[in-house]
Specification:
With 544 residues, this protein is of the alpha/beta class. The strands form 7 sheets. The protein has a 7-stranded mixed sheet, with helices on both faces. A 6-stranded mixed sheet has the order 10-9-8-11-12-24, sandwiched between helices. The radius of gyration is 25 Å and the shape is globular. The structure holds glyceraldehyde-3-phosphate.
Length: 544
């Protein structure tokens, strides 16, 4: 069946009855509450209406946006109150939470996990309706997040066990542990609104920091069911939410100088401007996951079955809306035509539809301006000599955009350097692999790369050239963040700091040492403290 605007329009439901019961639109959630200083406060000010990317098809063939709720747009004054609550709860590191034993903090996070698992259905449904993620992937995002939390707890137990001993060096006795940093401002992205937010928020919390948490613009409502869980699991002021427009509320938070850690998965432009607002930038730690334009290099001897399969996954999972997505392909000129042909065939096997459709691959995009931007990119490339190589590529019906395979892409086209973050697959050809390497060297980004090839010497050469350009080189595999125990970071404008189950615990804490000279008197003091369990820090207790 050929893809047309009409055929894509037909994929939208005409009414609620056409949606499988399990995935029907949730009752509109007009959220007026936000979490500040341990209580859910009511907001009477302006709100943001939330429209789903899933629209209803009208009898005249137009698509009608669906309102799924609204959330508070706090003002600067209210967000500063949330900041003050987090500052008070931290109390210069003397608050209940930062001084609590690791075991007790773990117990609180375990309680929180139990509470959110009970909310899975509602959260997954909101995830699907807010960002158009398929039902299977929305469930996967939830489960992956719960696994991440459980693995974080296990990793902290290990870390704590390793720290529960004294070290004696050069006549000095020391105990080395990790301590919290202070108040963390945590902002996640729309494409993984739950998972990537929690990959920062949970390590930040469990290490004893207090948190100000701003949900993303798309993917805000799904956090509402969690607010009560935060109040039940953590002491007051430890988690506070700020809802609203980033550019209205965040600058004041940063300029206050009271944010100690900026945890942001978003754009390098925003990260850069926020960091500059902190009056004492040396005091600010930043853990950032930012832009990326990951490249795939396809060598002449590549196994094209593998390369094509991984390329489809890498470029188009969740419609290409992943920071790790493959966003430009360099293919050797001798196989470029064949690669493009086969890739186009595979792309056209992807199933567009609604997120609840069985085995759906391409779903409506949540950013209202995205289809227009993608059309601009396509028109620009076509005007400069590229062609859309798959039938129907780039056809759109409202927010649903059919993937476009574009070839040959060259310098000077928008999609050569811009991060499309959507269903466009640009392919360029090369005669010498140095052209691809030079592209990566000149890039502002440095997250990951994929190499497809079968000659070990050539793969080895590329690996050695590329490991100092990016932070992960994938051989005959797409780029991806997982497994979550692997370090996830990037160079240049792609990241700052490292996230992974283990690394995040380190990123959101600082090593702290208590030391004394090895005299009899000092040994006696240490023994008394430890035997009497008089200190949370100085302790040899083991968490089992
Ligand atoms: O958007 C960026 C995500 O971290 C990508 O994660 O590779 O698991 O899809 P993923």
């Amino acid at each position: 069946m050929s893809v047309t605007t009409e055929s894509l329009t037909q994929l939208f439901p005409p009414d609620e009855a056409a949606i499988p019961e399990a995935w029907r639109r949730p009752t509109p959630l007009h959220q007026r509450q936000y979490l500040l200083d341990g209580e859910l406060r009511e907001w009477n000010g302006p709100t943001q209406e939330v429209l789903s990317p899933i629209q209803l098809r009208q009898p005249d063939g137009t698509l009608q946006p669906v309102v799924i709720g609204s959330y508070p747009l706090l003002d600067e004054a209210e967000s500063l109150k949330a900041l003050d609550a987090a500052v008070r709860a931290y109390d210069h590191g003397r608050g209940e939470w930062p001084t609590m034993s690791v075991a007790a903090r773990i117990a609180a996070v375990e309680k929180f996990t139990r509470l959110i698992v009970a909310q899975k259905k509602e959260i997954v449904q909101l995830l699907l309706w807010e960002i158009g993620k398929s039902a299977a992937d929305s469930e996967k995002e939830f489960d992956r997040t719960v696994d991440y939390i459980r693995n974080t707890i296990d990793a902290l137990k290990d870390l704590d066990r390793d720290s529960s001993r004294f070290t004696i060096e050069e006549g000095i006795i020391g105990q080395i542990r990790r301590s919290p940093l202070g108040v963390v401002l945590c902002m996640g992205p729309f494409n993984y609104p739950l998972n990537e937010t929690f990959c920062m928020l949970i390590p930040a919390l469990i290490m004893g920091n207090t948190v100000l948490f701003k949900p993303p613009k798309h993917g805000a409502l799904l956090h509402f069911p969690l607010l009560q869980a935060f109040t039940e699991a953590f002491p007051k002021g430890v988690v506070n939410t700020v809802y609203g427009r980033g550019n209205t509320i965040v600058p004041a938070l940063m300029s206050s100088g009271k944010i100690d850690v900026l945890g942001l998965i978003g754009s390098s432009r925003v990260a850069d401007s926020l960091k500059k607002l902190h009056p004492k930038s040396n005091r600010l730690r930043a853990i950032l996951g930012l832009d990326a334009k990951n490249v795939a290099i396809v060598m002449p001897d590549a196994d094209l079955d593998v390369a094509v399969k991984e390329s489809v996954l890498g470029a188009l999972s969740f419609n290409g809306q992943r920071c790790t997505a493959l966003k430009l392909f360099f293919v050797h000129e001798t196989i470029a035509e064949e690669f493009v042909q086969r890739l186009g065939d595979e792309i056209n096997k992807l199933k567009p539809g609604m997120p609840w459709d069985e085995k759906v691959n391409i779903t409506p995009l949540p950013e209202p301006q995205k289809p227009g931007y993608l059309a601009e990119c396509l028109a620009d490339a076509q005007a400069k000599g590229a062609r859309i190589m798959n039938e129907g590529g780039g056809t759109a019906a409202g927010p649903l955009v059919y993937p476009a395979l574009v070839y040959p892409v060259q310098e000077g086209m928008k999609m050569w350097r811009e991060e499309q973050f959507g269903p466009i697959v640009p392919v360029a050809s090369f005669s010498h692999v140095d052209e691809a390497i030079q592209y990566i060297i000149d890039s502002d980004h440095g997250q990951q790369v994929s190499i497809f090839g079968s000659k070990s010497q050539e793969v080895a050469h590329l690996v050695d050239q590329l490991v100092n350009q990016v932070s992960r080189v994938n051989i005959n595999a797409q780029c991806q963040r997982g497994p979550d125990t692997f370090p996830f970071t990037g160079r240049k404008d792609s990241a700052e700091g490292t996230l992974s189950v283990n690394d995040a615990l380190r990123s959101f804490s600082i090593r702290t040492v208590v030391a004394t000279k090895q005299t009899e008197a000092n040994k006696q003091i240490l023994n008394e403290i430890v035997d009497g369990q008089e200190s949370s820090f100085l302790s040899t207790r083991f968490i089992l």
